[in-house]
Amino acid sequence: MEQNKSNHLQEIVFATSDAAESRQLVKLHKQGLIRKIAPKIYTSNFEDNPVNIIKRNLYMILGRLFPKAILSHRTAFEFSPTDDGHIFLTYSYTKNILLPGIKVHLMEGPSALDDDIPFIEGLYASQRERAFLENMQISRKTGTESKILARDVVVAKIEQFICLNGESAINLLLDKAKKLSVKLNMKDEYDKLTRLVGSLLISKPSDVLSSPLAMARTFGFPYDPSKIEIFNKLYTTLLKDNFKALPEQNTTYESFRSFSFFESYFSSFLDGAEFDIDEAKKIIDTKSPVSDKKEASNSLLGIFSFASNKQEMTIVPKSSDEMIEILQYRHRVVLAARKDEMPGEFRYDNIFGNTHYDVDFNKVKGTLIKGFDYYNTLQNTFAKAIFLGFMLTEIRPFFSGNGRIARLMMNAEFVRAGEAKIIIPSIYKDDYLVALHKMSTIGDAESYIKTMKRIHQFSSMIRGESYEEIKDYLKSTKALY
Fold it and tell me: In angstroms, rounded to a whole number, what is the distance separating the alpha carbons of residues 71 and 205?
């Protein structure tokens, strides 16, 4: 009975100066519903090792203990502790803090500047120019204990930036770094950075988060910590890379609509609606479901009604409440013919597949809200889109149709930014599903990102004013096989 009560608590509970909350905390501790795992930190989880609990809730903990701290120096590029558990933050004072499995290095320095990046849980991360300057400093430590990246790693990051953005962009970066160096008192570091960039060019021509969960100190929407751990892995991996924008080529009404048909067809196919492609086109043209495939036909029509509506597809969530509202509205339309699947309503029970563990239905809303915090701070369109797509397929908030809704939400990010949408044709079906599975089960973010980049690149090359034109192109690439 007591253990059931603890299931309604968040995994991490913080000590507080509030007298009433402190009394509640003492009561929970005496009742054996929480245990202390670090100074000012308790947990309702009695099964997992404190090291694992701290690591998967690390940014929540850092944000609570050191509000408005900045992930800086090497951590501004790595967005995670080193292999030995060292993490580096710029804060209002200097101190080393030991947590289970983590050593937090607080370094006194300037607070967040205008262009520093709002990170999750009220933290910040050094903007790129500031991070490069910080990594030009001298460190007494070496290896994973050093606050700065090894010089060859910094060189590789500069080379990557130049290759992706060109020489003019690196000159703009240096201009901004020069102004920052005055504010940060880092003139020597700026001189080192300019010399390093100069030698490369010569030798190689070429929102503070306000999550309801963060504000709920003791109670609140429960969420699935194992999913947050996976989201954090994908999020931090996405932050380490740069993704090139792929502009939308199907800009006319007819070409956008034609592309949207194939987007809808393949999305339905992924979820088991195996229409012949010409049969699916007839359903769209006549708006009439096939008699023996009525539910699948209506779902296809629902997906297409969104995918082909450019105005609708520019709507993306600005808050967790908006995300939930958009999700439920789109699901209500797409699954309108499936009354037994509760269109527009989140699951009220658990579903356990053969290989996939679903979020407990009591934790769906909290996990969505927590996941939104990660999505909301991503700046790059590709990163936001594929993070959101994975997050929704992983949480599976509805009884069915989760994949179709996730892909609609993902592509809305691209339409909003004027970039090419993603379709996942038959030839990429297995690659896509395997990448999702590996991301879900072993946290293989690199494989998932690589697969989605390849599919996005393929999708961006599809251009045609008509159904037949795009169909012929897909046939020529064997994408329909």
Answer: 32
